[in-house]
Amino acid sequence: MPPKFKFTREQIIQTALDLTREGGIASVTAKSVGTKLNSSVKLVFGQFENMDELKREVLKAADTMCRTYMQDIMASGKYPPYKASGIAYIRFAKEEKELFKLLYMRDRSHEAFDDRESMRPLVEEIQRRTGLGGEDAYRFHLEMWMFVHGIAAMVATSYLDWDTETISSVLTDAFFGLKHRFSEEGRKDK
Asked: Do residues 60 and 110 both lie within one domain?
């Protein structure tokens, strides 16, 4: 009969997530997880094949946490939905610096991903707000997201410490600047 484990996979993942929040993903080792749970390293290897599997689970948990965070801010109704997504992304970077770095500032050169489907609701929101067609709305979102990500990266690394009012104002400026650029008048300015 296999041994009964004192901690569940979920408890171990949560502990590893907490360690990541405190010191980054590099601080997650079998020893640090065992120490945090007052147990041995065997507890990790009894529930996970290896540390890479545990770290993949931490990444999934961080992604779920970020998505929930963003959905909550977008659903609050305090800002228009598209603006709320940018504010939420930047606030997550400010409030969960290490999780933000894990999710959005790691080497992703060996990952295959296509974000078009996940971007679809935001692109459709841009289409509603601007009247742009699909490809222009997609390009608009990519350019806006690069701007938002730049602010978030500066916040996550403590280069900037902007309040929400400043962030909101800057996002408004960028949105309307891009809206003008994609307008007929803006296309003539090129």
From this structure: no
* 142 φ/ψ angles, rounded to the nearest 5 degrees: -60, -45
Q: What is the CATH number of the domain that holds 31?
A: 1.10.10.60
97-104 vs 51-75: helix crossing angle, rounded to 10: 110
> How many of the other CB atoms lie within 10 Å of CB of 14?
15
Do 105 and 187 reside in the same domain of the chain?
yes
Chain centroid to CA 52 = 20
Structure tokens at 147: 């701007």
68 with 130, same domain? Answer: no
pLDDT digits (tens, 9 = 90+) for 14-31: 999 999 999 999 999 999
How do residues 74-87 score in pLDDT, each as one tens digit?
Answer: 999 999 999 999 99
